[in-house]
Amino acid sequence: MASTQQQRYILVERRDDGIAVVRINRTDKLNAMNLDVIAQLSSAMDDLAGDDTVRAVIITGTGEKAFSAGADIEYMSRISPLEAEEYARRGHAAMSKVENLNKPVIAAVNGYALGGGCELALACDIRIASRNAVLAQPEVGLGICPGWGGTQRLARIVGVAKAKELVYTGRRVNAEEALSMGLVNRVVELPQLMDESIAVAREIAKNSAIAVRVSKMLINRGVESDISTGLALEVWGWSLCFTHPDRAERMSRFLQKR
User: Fold this and answer.
1) Residue 188: its H or E element
2) Residues 6 or more apart whose Cβ sits within 8 Å of residue 246
3) Residues 35, 75: contact at Cβ < 8 Å?
4) Where are any strands of DSSP class E within 46-125?
5) In the β-sheet with 112-114, what is the strand arrangement from edge to edge?
6) Which member of 64, 119, 203, 234 is catalytic?
7) Cα 140 from Cα 153, distance rounded (Å)
């Protein structure tokens, strides 16, 4: 057990352009997420949240076959309902840290993103898929429902009717179909996946970190609120940006260039 805990399942690369690349590193299991992976992912999000040199994050899977094949089915096959509840809670906590990280997160979906892997991608802000990507919430075929946010985030992203179809059937969708329903933002060939993801991350990183952070918070909170509450939050967020010196500096630079 001790040797398992020492295994590095989450690799974090901090680049000098303000981008951090987080890789799930469990290729022998198609990057499936057991308790150790979830714990290390959660810890990585905590570290990145406190690192102001990082302005955008990319999450991907090691290798070319899988972003993540999901939760650990071997482990799930032998646990009790109480242990299952704890597994779900830990999964939810990690997904929430990704969703609410104080900087944008891009999922570079390289291959299979099934079950918990799809749910991790859903927790990211932007999803860029390789041509060989396959996404699905296949849990009903195993006698369970999605347990790491799939029943909630999927419906918010692709709409209730399409989410019900995908969850009830458990069917897999390829990259092009995922693009057509808005499940992913872009599709590229596998060799270009990281280059494309880094290019988008750089586009984000060149902007005001505080403005992007506030924008992410407003969108996340706004989709959970009625329009009046969301608009009131936007006024608050807009005003908050005016308290930061970055706003004055950027506006001054803009006017000088003009």
Assistant:
1) strand 186-188
2) 208, 209, 210, 211
3) yes
4) 56-61, 66-68, 105-109, 112-114
5) 66-68, 112-114, 134-136, 173-174
6) 119
7) 17
Sequential DSSP letters for 239-257: HHHTTSHHHHHHHHHHHHH
pLDDT, position 6: 56
H/E segment holding residue 146: none
Q: What is the DSSP letter of 142?
A: G
Provide the token pair at 226.
Answer: 């009625």
- Model pTM? 0.93
Annotated catalytic residue within 83, 139, 177, 203:
139
What's the CA gap between 164 and 42, in Å, rounded? 29
In whole angstroms, what is the distance from residue 134 CA to residue 47 CA?
30
Write the CB contacts of 175 (distance below 8 Å, at least 6 apart in sequence): 109, 129, 130, 131, 132, 133, 134, 184, 187
């089915």: which residue's tokens? 73
2 pLDDT tier (thresholds 50, 70, 90): very low
> How far from chain centre, in Å, is Cα 220?
13
In the chain the domains, ranked by start, together with CATH numbers, are: 2-205 (3.90.226.10), 209-257 (1.10.12.10)
Backbone φ/ψ region at 95: left (φ over 0), alpha (ψ -120 to 50), beta: alpha
Taking only the tens place, the pLDDT of each residue in 8-60 is 999 999 999 999 999 999 999 999 999 999 999 999 999 999 999 999 999 99
Residue 83 annotated among the catalytic residues of the structure: no
Integer angstrom CA distances of residue 74 from 4, 120, 141, 155 = 15, 19, 15, 28
Question: Which residues lie below 8 Å from residue 11, measured CB to CB, with a gap of 6+?
Answer: 22, 23, 25, 62
Q: Is 119 a catalytic residue?
A: yes
